[in-house]
Design goal:
The structure is a single chain. 18% of the residues lie in helices and 39% in strands. The protein is of the alpha/beta class. It has 2 domains: 145 residues, Probable inorganic polyphosphate/atp-NAD kinase, domain 1 (Rossmann fold), CATH 3.40.50; 130 residues, Probable inorganic polyphosphate/atp-NAD kinase, domain 2 (Tumour Suppressor Smad4, Sandwich), CATH 2.60.200.
Length: 294
């Protein structure tokens, strides 16, 4: 299990801000700037987002942002949160998600609670939870995802015919609209929509779920991080799009093999006391009890 740990230090020299491309962020940006000024903390933002940061942040490029901040604040929805996690991949920078969207499952706080959340972080009254990431390697290209990697059929093309190899041996072949390889964090995203199970984000492993399968075996699989996983695109498969956290990166064709690896320390997110994954899942996914239970 990936443990939640109480933050050891409340000393912050610089805070970074990443913005949703369209949603109104003025109130949140002003809250961050006011808090940072009271504590003599630098606020850094991407140069291309400076106008939307209302000149309240120092402009830097993505590499500088990842290297110099002690905390990264994501203002937006789940897509912005995933982008922020990828931006600090390998830097061990915790990300605080602030929900400006509708679902915001990965976010920890809403805008009205941001000022109090920053004060709590300043006092060290928060946890930093580690999140597993998955890396997909195919054709010499490598991509990292925090939610999922998906092989999806292209419209007008054939089905996704994919063989699942575990520990170097073939296990099962799927014929489906798509094959989802999800992290535990991503179990509540596309995997959930496809009928896959909810998995605790503290779990260590990968979840494989077929979408609209045309094969007799139509169940999800949960694999240990220590079990090497590969997906082989079979003869007769259509051209498949490789989607990484919802973004199309490339196409694969029959004969291509995707190797999937796991980073147990892939990302870090900020959590607070009283905030529970299961509370969020029940509320935001509208999990309900059986009608038979009254």
């Amino acid at each position: 299990m990936v443990e939640s740990t109480l933050a050891e230090s409340a000393k912050l020299g610089a805070v970074g801000v990443v913005l949703h491309p369209r949603r109104d962020n003025a109130q949140a940006v002003e809250a961050i700037a006011a808090w940072a000024k009271s504590r003599s903390v630098r606020v850094l933002g991407l140069a291309e987002e400076l106008d939307r940061l209302r000149d309240l942040a120092e402009p830097v490029n993505a590499d500088q942002l990842a290297a110099e901040v002690d905390l990264l604040v994501s203002l937006g929805g789940d897509g912005t949160m995933l982008r922020a996690l990828r931006m600090v991949d390998g830097c061990k920078v915790p990300v605080l998600g602030v929900n400006l969207g509708k679902l915001g499952f990965l976010a920890e706080v809403d805008v009205p609670d941001l000022a109090a959340a920053l004060e709590a972080i300043g006092r060290g009254e928060h946890r930093v939870e580690t999140r597993v990431s998955v890396t997909a390697d195919v054709g010499g290209q490598s991509s990292t995802a925090y939610n999922d990697v998906v092989l999806a059929r292209r419209p007008g093309q054939g089905m996704a015919a994919v063989a699942l190899w575990v520990e170097g041996k073939p296990f099962v072949r799927y014929s489906a609209d798509a094959i989802i390889v999800s992290t535990p964090t991503g179990s509540t995203a596309y995997n959930f929509s496809a009928g896959g199970p909810i998995v605790s984000p503290r779990a260590q492993g990968l979840l494989v779920t077929p979408v609209a399968p045309h094969s007799s075996f139509n169940r999800s699989l949960f694999l240990s991080c220590s079990e090497p996983l590969a997906l082989e695109v079979l003869t007769g498969s259509g051209v498949l799009a490789v989607e990484v956290d919802g973004e199309v990166r490339m196409d694969v064709r029959p004969g291509d093999i995707m190797q999937l690896g796991v980073d147990l320390d892939g990302g870090q997110v900020v959590r607070f006391a009283g905030s529970s994954f299961y509370d969020r899942a029940r509320r935001k996914l509208r999990v309900t009890d059986s009608a038979e239970l009254g």
